[in-house]
Design goal:
Oligomer: single chain
Family: Belongs to the anaerobic coproporphyrinogen-III oxidase family.
CATH superfamily of the largest domain: tm_1862 like domain
Shape: globular
Binding site for S-adenosyl-L-methionine 1: 54, 111, 144, 328
Radius of gyration: 21 Å
Structural class: alpha/beta
Number of helices: 15
Bound molecules: iron/sulfur cluster
Cofactor: [4Fe-4S] cluster
Domain Radical SAM core: 45-282
Subcellular location: Cytoplasm
CATH topology of the largest domain: pyruvate-formate lyase- activating enzyme
Length: 452
């Protein structure tokens, strides 16, 4: 049974992206205790010292108007040194918490624009983080780059210090779309950076694309996918544009009339999906495509894909330390977020304090539901709950799952329910039926972007 556009539109509604559970708007900030969260970190490291590290580098030279990230726009590069100093100090403060030296499994530099920073500052950062610590045998260092600020020297230095995966922001190659989102980026510059990274030994090239941007059309998406065919990245993150003007003022520079309709958005996704499949890509979960040999494809097939605040990942380390302004740490399902405002972040670190502003300590029920939701989001398999959920929630789940089956979104495979290939686009909708916070508290206005 194929899924019609009408059926997909029927499920369009504001929903969480489930990069964590509970989702951030439902965190219980009032009862959060940073010391208890750090206690989980200490306890977990006693048995296994593996840690994954995310470092947020928030600066960008110019503002892309569609952007919903936590970023700071400036052309003043004197901000680099004090910011890197603060991250290294924050890392030192974390090490004081650790019962034994960490084994580093992953480092991911995200932003903002990590390549806003000079190659020498990035090298100072990574040298300071790694120090004399052990690296896991399967370690991976990865970085998000903007081709407009990424130089060959950046690639040389990153390759020398162990980076092997590069994630290139593209969004769209259509000049009209680039103009309205204020992100003028040539195909040639993008291609040169990717080719040079491959030449320098980067084994994984990811690109980020977005559908549903202002002025985008099915035709303009075809233009972009033909350009992608020339680049053949290993992975493509193909995100639905999240229209959240209440949160991101830059998005008010265009109106809703400039945005494609839900129908057009779905057509864009389906058109790109068809072309990418012909090129040999597989759709991975909700919004990724990858070549058969990529580790993400293998993780999808072996049902070992994971999801964290950066989105889908092959990283299974249960301890994620987030460094930098706004970063979120995940200590075995307990969350701690740093101050978002750069000055506040710098001030706390300077005062010798870990700059944690808020977070959430998960209950046993939270962990149980998180398990259901992450299984849906990362494997497309649905576990039928038989446990501690309330009778009314179980009835609601049963009804919703039946609707998904009737609409061709889920299908029985033996004893369990599995999402259909086109139903993968609606994984957020399936996951949401298990969300007890949504079930009992409901949605408030302007909480989440739309699911399609
Ligand atoms: S999309 Fe990236 S480069 Fe553009 S403003 Fe946002 S964080 Fe900066």
């Amino acid at each position: 049974m194929s899924l019609s556009i009408e059926t997909i539109i029927k499920y369009e509604r504001p929903l969480p992206r489930y990069t964590s559970y509970p989702t951030v708007p439902f965190w219980d900030a009032e009862h959060f205790d940073a010391e208890k969260a750090l206690g989980v970190l200490r306890q977990s490291m006693l048995t296994k010292p593996d840690v994954s590290i995310y470092i947020h580098l928030p600066y960008c030279e110019s503002l892309c108007t569609f952007c919903g990230c936590n970023r700071r726009i400036t052309k003043n590069h004197t901000v680099e040194q004090p910011y890197i100093d603060a991250i290294l100090e924050e890392w030192r403060l974390y090490q004081l918490q650790m019962p034994q030296p960490p084994v580093i499994t992953h480092i991911h530099l995200g932003g903002g624009t990590p390549t806003f920073f000079s190659p020498s500052e990035l090298k100072r950062l990574i040298d300071g983080i790694v120090g004399r610590h052990k690296l896991s045998p399967i370690y991976e260092f990865s970085i998000e780059v903007h081709p407009n600020t990424c130089t060959y020297e950046h690639i040389d230095v990153l390759a020398d210090i162990g980076f092997r995966r590069i994630s290139v922001g593209i969004q769209d190659f259509d000049p009209r779309v680039q103009y309205i989102i204020n992100r003028n980026q040539t195909f040639e510059k993008t291609r040169d950076i990717i080719e040079y990274a491959r030449f320098k030994g980067f084994a994984g090239v990811n690109v980020d694309l977005v559908y549903g941007l202002p002025l985008q059309t099915v035709e303009s998406i075809k233009h972009t996918t033909e350009k992608i065919a020339e680049l053949m990245p290993d992975r493509i993150a193909y995100y639905a544009y999240a229209h959240v003007p209440w949160k991101s003022k830059a998005q008010r520079r265009y109106t809703e009339a400039d945005l494609p309709s839900a129908r057009e958005k779905i057509q864009m996704f389906l058109s790109a999906r068809e072309r990418l499949k012909k090129l040999g890509y597989e759709q991975i979960a909700m919004d990724h495509f990858a070549l058969p040999n990529d580790s993400m494809t293998k993780a999808w097939h072996s049902k070992s894909l994971h999801r964290n605040f950066m989105g889908y990942t092959t990283d299974s380390t249960p301890l994620l330390i987030g460094l930098g302004a706004s970063s979120i740490s995940d200590f075995n399902g307990n969350f701690a977020q740093n101050y978002k405002e750069v000055e506040k972040y710098l001030g706390e670190v300077k005062a010798g304090k870990l700059p944690i502003e808020r977070g959430h300590l998960s209950s046993e029920m939270d962990k149980l539901i998180a398990d259901y939701i992450m299984q849906v989001m990362c494997t497309g398999m649905v576990k039928i709950p038989t446990d501690a959920l309330s009778k009314e929630h179980l009835e609601f789940i049963a009804n919703q799952l039946q609707n998904f089956i009737e609409d061709g979104i889920l299908t029985w495979e033996g004893e369990s329910l599995q999402v259909t290939e086109l139903g993968q686009l609606l994984l957020r909708n399936i996951a949401a039926v298990f969300d007890t916070y949504l079930f009992y508290k409901g949605l408030k206005e302007n909480m989440f972007s739309k699911s399609v």
